[in-house]
Amino acid sequence: MQNERTVADGLRLAVRALVYAVLGGTALIAVATVVSVLGPTLALDLYTPPVAAWWTVFTAIAVQGVPFLLLGTVVSTAIGAFVPERALRRLLPRRPALAVPVAGVAGAVLPGCECASVPVAGSLMRRGVAPAAALAFLLSAPAINPVVLVATSIAFPGRPEMVLARLVASLGTAVVMGWLWARFGREKWLRLPRRPAAHATGVRAFLTGLQHDFLHAGGFLVLGAAAAATFNIVVPRSVLEVFTGSAWVAVPLLALLAVVLCVCSEADAFVAASLSAFPASARLAFMVVGPMVDLKLIALQAGTFGRSFAVRFASVTWVVAVTASVLVGWWLL
């Protein structure tokens, strides 16, 4: 009986592979035919400065994000495959009010960008960590790790107050958001992805989870990069320079700009330093908001935790981050 079942499964897989091969081959032939016929004409029509600029921005965002996304998926799958739930629960206090600041400070140990923090936070939740603590870690990890702080000090030489302001505002935003989720968050807003072999442990579970998480999150990274590149082409820089005079306008403007530019947290300080016409508080808001709320991060959160969560969480995070930047900027800058 078991042998017959094995043979039937083998035949089923063989038929499925044959169907995929035929369909894929047909599609490949069709694409090759269209490209061979229309390729030269499309190349002449599309090779324009705006398209070249769009492709440059898109490639830069995707290329700088993929290594950190891979780092995040490696860490997250390693947590799921090798770290027992009891170990994670012992590291954090049981009360969410205390676990949130501990998790926020723990974000300093992961030298990566926001692409890495999303899969790690998802893995922490699946392993029994309270969502409020995992979300505080998600926000703080790309904003206060040593690589980001050192890059900020290099981008703003002789201005240690800018580094301190970024640390305080970013950590404060992460902790406040964790507390807000602990108080007002609803489980129905948060959807955790189900990965294959989630119940298993060991090397096989690690490899299976790594493949699933990386391909799943990579698609949303590409969508976010495409949206950011489109904004860079559609909105001219001259429009942004009109709003440099007033701090009340400059702060929300750069906070919105951080959302759409999707600059990696290791590099956003250099972009902020180049915006010398804007007030210091506005540039601080750019550095605080960027690692916590941008288009590719929203897309990654929507793909990992659900669209309902991403819309609510990103909107509130943006408001809290801007408020923290204004208060800290008024205090330190």
Task: Outline the structure in words.
It is a single chain. The protein has 333 residues and is mainly alpha-helical. It is built from 15 helices and no strands. Helix 4 packs antiparallel against helix 8, helix 7 (146-155) packs across helix 8 and helix 11 packs parallel to helix 13 (280-289). The radius of gyration is 23 Å and the shape is globular. The termini are far apart.
Strand percentage: under 5%
Counting helices, strands and paired strands, the structural category is: mainly alpha
What are the segments in which pLDDT stays under 50 over at least 5 consecutive residues?
Answer: none
The total count of strands amounts to: 0
N- to C-terminal separation? 76 Å
Radius of gyration: 23 Å
Mean pLDDT: 75
Number of separate helices: 15
What's the short version?
The protein is mainly alpha-helical and 333 residues long. It has helices spanning 2-46, 49-82, 85-91, 96-106, 114-126, 131-144, 146-155, 160-184, 203-234, 237-241, 247-261, 268-274, 280-289, 295-305, 307-332. It starts with a helix and ends with a helix.
